[in-house]
Amino acid sequence: MPFVNDVTGILMLGNKTNLDTVVPPGHLPRTLISHSFDQLWAHYQREPGATWLVKPTDADAGADVYLLRPGSSNNRVLLQSMTGNTGVTELLTKGGLRGFGNRYCALQEYHPHTDEKRVILAAGRPVAQQLHRLAPDEHRGNTAHRVHCAETALTADEQQLCERIGRRLARHGIRFAGIDLAHPYVFEVNLVNPGGLDERVALGLPDRSPDILQALLDQARRDFSRDAPGDFPDEVPSDHPGDDPGGLQ
Q1: For the segment 47-63, what is each residue's pLDDT rounded down to a tens digit?
Q2: Spatial CA neighbour of 180 closest among 214, 134, 212, 211
Q3: Cβ of 204: how many Cβ atoms within 10 Å?
Q4: 205 in the same domain as 83
Q5: What total number of domains does the chain contain?
Q6: Same-domain pairing of 120 and 21
Q7: Most buried one in 22, 82, 95, 125, CB count within 10 A?
Q8: Which helix (H) or strand (E) holds 187?
Q9: What is the CA radius of gyration of the chain?
Q10: Does residue 236 sit within a domain?
Q11: Gap between the Cα atoms of 123 and 139, Å rounded
């Protein structure tokens, strides 16, 4: 049974732990993913003057995304909480619940920005995009958190970056995805719920659904007629010599 997005691709790429598989080097903020509070705290302390984000590796709509500002007494507590408060649990249970407390989270370098773009990829190419202007007192660019949405266009650099990511996703059977970016950085690649279709209509933006569906149908016909993953005959060489084309390790 063919799917728009390959199940294995969703399983392996549908969280923040494998973003570097599809996002080219230099376009991801510095990120450490761990379930160890000690490891995360040691990493944070190396640059106490920096601002960081901490967030779950597999959550949606900006849930539990916290800003760690320099000098805040909340920073240590948030990292403890986001990794399951294992120190407290082990103290109270003498290690009896070891293995149940640890949670993975991402500690990511924060790059201040006022605008993000949600870009919809279909069949490996950007087909729609909208501007998300963050609320003045927010660091999250999700529509659930009072962003102002508007129609927008991609710059030449953004277009090229999205096409590169689209080709990498296609190698893993992902034909429909959403990207959150503030160039040059990519913050999220959304595979399960890319959004941007009914949401655009609800916001009064042009309906791109017919273009997206047609692109997906055309690619599906090409893929399933030869019973192989999609290829892109017009793919160009990487603009970064030695750049890994992306693959699951």
Answers
A1: 989 999 999 888 677 67
A2: 134
A3: 9
A4: no
A5: 2
A6: yes
A7: 22
A8: strand 185-190
A9: 20
A10: no
A11: 31
Q: What CATH number is given to the structural domain containing 218? A: 3.30.470.20
Q: Residue 93: which pLDDT band, with cuts at 50, 70 and 90?
A: low
Tokens of 178: 């959403």
Secondary-structure breakdown of the chain: helix, strand, coil percentages, each rounded to the nearest 5: 35, 20, 45
Decide if 44 is inside a domain.
yes
CATH of the domain at 43: 3.30.1490.20
Residue 177 to residue 191: CA distance in whole angstroms: 5
Report the predicted TM-score, pTM, of the whole model to 2 decimal places: 0.79
Within 8 A by CB and 6+ apart from 46, the residues are none
Domain limits for position 91: 31-109
pLDDT digits (tens, 9 = 90+) for 149-205: 888 999 999 999 999 999 999 999 999 999 999 999 999 898 887 876 777 777 788
The conformational region for residue 39 under phi > 0 = left, psi -120 to 50 = alpha, else beta, is alpha
